[in-house]
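Researcher: Next entry: Pantothenate synthetase (Halalkalibacter alkalisediminis).
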Amino acid sequence: MKIIETIAQMRQEITIARKAGQTVGFVPTMGYLHEGHLSLIEAAKEKHDVVVVSIFVNPLQFGPNEDLERYPRDFERDERLAKHIGTDILFYPTVQEMYPETMPMTIHVTKGVEVLCGESRPGHFDGVATVVMKLFQIVQPDEAFFGQKDAQQIAVIMNMVSAFNLPLQIVACPTVREEDGLAKSSRNVYLSDQERQEAPLLYETLQFGAELIKSGEKKRDRVLDQMKARLDNGTGRLDYLTILSYPSLNETQTLHGAIIIAVAYFYQNARLIDNYILEA
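Model: Predicted structure:
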């Protein structure tokens, strides 16, 4: 496994791969790798000759009161995990390398950001789209792999790829979960023991809502009311619970077609998100 810290060297490696006729799969991450990330790397390995994993905690997507400095980092651990699973190139740029000066421009996302995480995190997806666009230009992959847990992020990136005619495909991979259903997340380390025991309630509530819909309930508000009643038993604070069309992320009172049931929930030191996508 090669560890690359500069954009110039990363581009050189991709040029070599292309001249050899190799395909490139890309897994962008913010590090502190867990089984969810590793499943994306495995999916990329199954389809491509060269797998690039990036680790970059992107300051542009953190708001002024968010956890940029507290975001978990452990590069030595990440290096071991990435190497063990068979990553070919680990791209590990510094903030200075990615943003050598104040950005003269960024991507402003105008669709799909007024709901879900975007509603309470203004500017977040502008930061996500900007860094992902930079990474796509640097790595130039054939396909990029993302976890379905970040469903809104996937929708935004898919829209960006389409809008700017980028020559790659986005692959959405299933959310990887703990045995009790809790979605794998770097932020799970911030949960207290009591919160960790309670946290599977989020996915259980999503499953409950999905079963209501599958059994014939098509009224959005009726499903949400019953789901919220279950979450009232939790010790944290609900950020949002909603049902939207997917990937357009529009609100409709009568459920039909592809939809996403999504939740965000605050515990004392962690904000957890999860979702369930189905056909209504």
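Model: Note for the record: The mean pLDDT is 94.
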